[in-house]
Specification:
The protein is of the alpha/beta class. Helix content is about 35%, strand content about 25%. It is built from eight helices and nine strands. The longest helix has 15 residues, at about 25-35. S-adenosylmethionine binds near residues 25, 49 and 51.
C-alpha cells in the first residue's frame, strides 16, 4: 500500500501543524464545510483524507455520533489520533483502493476536504461512496478552485493534468487540475445530486492570521466547496 500522494513523514507533520491554524484551512475551507454540514447530531460520519483530524474534532464537538477517518499518511494519522483519541476510528487506507473495510449504507454523512483532486481512481471512489453512504446521505467535498490553478499554472483553463504546487519550503502538493465541468461532472455522473456550491472567502476572524491572504480570498477564489446528496433518498 503506497498511497503515493498522501502527505508522508515530515510533510505530514508540517501539514498537521499548518492546517490547525492556517488562513486557508482553519478560516476559509473548514468554516465553509461547517456551514454546508448543518446539523450533524448523532450522524455517523466518514471522512476521506482526514489529515490531522481537525474537522473530525469539530464534528464530534458538534454532536456527531461517530467519525471514521481514512488517510494514507501515518504521520497525519498519528496527529489525528493524538487529537481525537478514542472518539474517532482511524484507518490507514490508500484512497486509490476500494473501501472494502466499510459496510454498505453505513454512513449518514461523507466528508472529503481537499483530498479528491489528489486521486487517479476518482470514478471508483465515487462508486464506493455510493455504496457506503446511506441513500440520501450528504457528501461534502472541497477542492482547489479551478481558476486558482489556471491563474497559477497558466495554459488553458480546460487543461486536465497532474500538477505540483510548492508547499512550505521543502514540499510539493501533487494533484489534478481540472475545470469546473469535470469536477462537478464526475459527481453528477456518479448519481450525486448537487445541493449547494460555495466559493469560500476567509472569515473576518482569520484576518490577523494572514491579512494578505485574507484579502486575496475576497478577490480571487482559492477553493470550491459543495454539498451533494447520495442517490436514492430524499434528505
Ligand atoms: C490537503 S490534505 C487535507 C487534509 C484534511 N482533509 C484537511 O482539510 O485538513 C489532503 C489529505 O489527503 C491525503 N491523501 C492524499 N492522497 C491520498 C491517498 N492516495 N490515499 C489516502 N490519503 C491521501 C493526504 O495524506 C492528506 O491528509
Amino acid at each position: 500500500m503506497s498511497a503515493g500522494t498522501a502527505y508522508h513523514g515530515d510533510m505530514g507533520e508540517h501539514f498537521a501543524a499548518a492546517s490547525a491554524k492556517s488562513l486557508y484551512h482553519a478560516h476559509t475551507d473548514r468554516p465553509a464545510l461547517r456551514e454546508l454540514a448543518g446539523d450533524v447530531t448523532g450522524a455517523r460520519v466518514l471522512e476521506l483524507g482526514c489529515g490531522a483530524g481537525h474537522f473530525a474534532a469539530e464534528l464530534l464537538e458538534r454532536g456527531a455520533g461517530q467519525v471514521v477517518g481514512l488517510d494514507g499518511s501515518e504521520s497525519l494519522l498519528r496527529a489525528a489520533r493524538a487529537q481525537l483519541g478514542a472518539r474517532a476510528v482511524l484507518h490507514r487506507h490508500d484512497l486509490e483502493d476500494p473501501l472494502t473495510l466499510l459496510e454498505d449504507r453505513s454512513f449518514d454523512l461523507g466528508v472529503m476536504a481537499l483530498a479528491y483532486n489528489h486521486l487517479d481512481a476518482r470514478e471508483q471512489l465515487l462508486a464506493e461512496l455510493r455504496r457506503v453512504l446511506r441513500p440520501g446521505a450528504a457528501l461534502l467535498v472541497s477542492t482547489t478552485h479551478p481558476t486558482a490553478d489556471w491563474t497559477y499554472f497558466g495554459g488553458s483553463y480546460f487543461t486536465e493534468e497532474r500538477v505540483k504546487l510548492p508547499f512550505g519550503d521543502a514540499f510539493a502538493l501533487d494533484y489534478w487540475r481540472m475545470p469546473l465541468e469535470t469536477f462537478l461532472g464526475e459527481f453528477l455522473g456518479a448519481g450525486f445530486v448537487l445541493e449547494k456550491l460555495v466559493e469560500p472567502r476567509a472569515r473576518e476572524e482569520g484576518r490577523p492570521v494572514d491579512p494578505v491572504r485574507h484579502d486575496k480570498t475576497h478577490r480571487q477564489p482559492v477553493f470550491l466547496a459543495a454539498r451533494f446528496r447520495a442517490p436514492g433518498g430524499t434528505s
